[in-house]
Amino acid sequence: MNDIKIKIYGILLLTRKQFVIGYTLFFVFFVLAIVYFFFFPVENIPVNASAFEKLFGNYTILIFLLFLVWIVIEGIFYWDKFIKAQFELIENQKKEIILINKDLNQHQEEIKAQRDEIEAQRDEVVKHLETISHQKKELTQSIQYAYRIQCALLPPESYIQNCLPNSFILYMPKDVVSGDFYFVEQVHNYTIVAAVDCTGHGVPGAMMSVIGYNLLNQAVKVNKITRPADILNFLDIGVTEILRQAHNESGVKDGMDLSVVSIDNQMRTFEYAGAFNSIYFTHNNELSEIKADKFPIGVNEDGVADNYTNNGIPVSKGDMVYLFSDGFADQFGGPKGKKFKYKQLENSLLSVSNLNVNEQNVKMRQIYFDWKGVQEQVDDILLIGIRV
Predict the structure, then answer these.
(1) Which 3 state secondary structure label does DSSP give 7?
(2) Where are the domains of the chain?
(3) pLDDT digits 0-9 by tens, 154-197
(4) Core-most of 73, 121, 369, 388, by most CB within 10 Å?
(5) Which CATH architecture fits 157-387?
């Protein structure tokens, strides 16, 4: 408030403090002058003095008294102007405060509206999250149930040990359910072993695995087929018919790659046939490969089944036979984040081939995880080792 300025006599621009000081000085001056001339009046005015000097000499106190009254009137006048200026300033500030309050109220309403919108969006998000959580729970339960069904299809450990007492199976699905599966079955004097890699992994792969397992069951248990090439031929026809792939009727081009080994338990001979999945075997501390045919199971658009090659496996007692899917070789990892690849898989299998089968299983699992490190598992893992 002390910063308010007004013009005195239209010339001097003074603050209220400056005005009070100046006004006080003038007021004190005229009061002292009146007191002085009251006690010490002007005497002996010269005869030749001017009219002004005579007037001042005769009416000194009256003149100073008039000036004092004038000062008081002027003081009241200008003080009133200060009061009006102050009042005007207060009114302007009041208007500004009203405008600010109006803006604040408007902002408050906007904030309230935004808050209501945010709360509505939050409620909507919570609702969606609850829906997603419920759907996820149902999906998880469905996948877990599918996993139990898939596990029920796979031969139990006791049955595998009865059929293949000197063997191991390294089986690690990428997801809960798997597109890879293994098949072990005895019919007459033969043990049939298969390592199967269906198209995809997870739920789609698992659905294909059910088709594949059912067809293998029909081929081996129902139709008593023991020759690996004939088993592949049966599967090739079956997948093409079930998925209606002849002449591209369904547009589905899914299938499976697999290797099948048939063991004559009396003659101790091994036969093999493969669709894209080769096998390895060791003999005299050397590892060899029998390559698979480059025909997939299924996807016969012409409706004609492929003919697969039946191979004898030249192994002796103590040798190892390995069946596998491509998951191990395709895993990214190592210091440069590259694929494991088949050459390194061959070297790893040869390095563990003289260990007992349980130790081979542990060692190959360790090799896999050491290579994978922090990388994500890219595919289902299946590796079967059989000691001759």
Answers:
(1) strand
(2) 5-112, 157-387
(3) 999 999 999 999 999 999 998 888 888 999 999 989 999 999 99
(4) 388
(5) 4-Layer Sandwich (3.60)
